[in-house]
Amino acid sequence: MRINRILLAGSLVSVALVLQVTVLGRLQLPGAVPDLVLLTVVALALVYGHVSGALIGFAAGLLTDLAPPADHAAGRYALVLCLIGYLVGLVRPDNGRFRSAWGPMLTVVAAAIGSTLLYAGVGALVGDTAARHVGLVGLLFTATLYDLLLAPFTVPFIMALARKAENDPMAVEANGGPPQGKDVASGWLAGGTGLRIGSQRGGLRMMTARGRANRAGRIKGVKGVKGVKSVRKL
């Protein structure tokens, strides 16, 4: 991994972990706790790909395992987030773009469900039956709901930061350059699932270019008519 990726990922994961432990973990919400660390791993994996996603997921999971008040074996959540980061990076489009916001939203849902099932499965292998007492169905529902509600406020922002730090040309296009497709990060930041800022700018530029071409054609036509009249007079 590049140095800028390591620094940015480490900073974002650290901030997410502190917020999750000190704020989200103390809200006493029913069922699961909103997993800000998971959303950070998902957002970075959507930008960096499966290899970096797996490495970031492992490091983020290991920090979560060691952070108080951890009540499970170290390495358990590291394995879960490593797999999630790898799988999320595999579904990243080749050009780094989603056609609509449904792509990352479904990715967040799948990551929330998959992480909960993997965590419960690994716990069952090591003899941890806490998920059975709480209720696996309730954990799945609340984890998916909380992460999905939190995703629009975190995932596009993290993706935009990652692309900017990466000097990704898509980040420049999202800020006003010639659009080549739809960018989910700029679309979510612009208003949920609209994803129309780039297309509107491109449409205005196309209209301006067509207007100039039409005016040039009319001028040439007028000059041609005047030339024909002058020839006839001669």
From TrEMBL:
A Pfam family hit: MreD
Domain of life: Bacteria
Keywords: Cell membrane, Cell shape, Membrane, Transmembrane, Transmembrane helix
Compartment(s) of residence: Cell membrane
Bilayer-spanning residue ranges: 6-24, 36-62, 74-91, 103-122, 134-161
Membrane topology per record: Multi-pass membrane protein
InterPro entries for the chain: Cell_shape_determining_MreD
The family this protein is said to belong to: Belongs to the MreD family.
Protein name per UniProt: Rod shape-determining protein MreD
Annotated organism of origin: Streptomyces polychromogenes
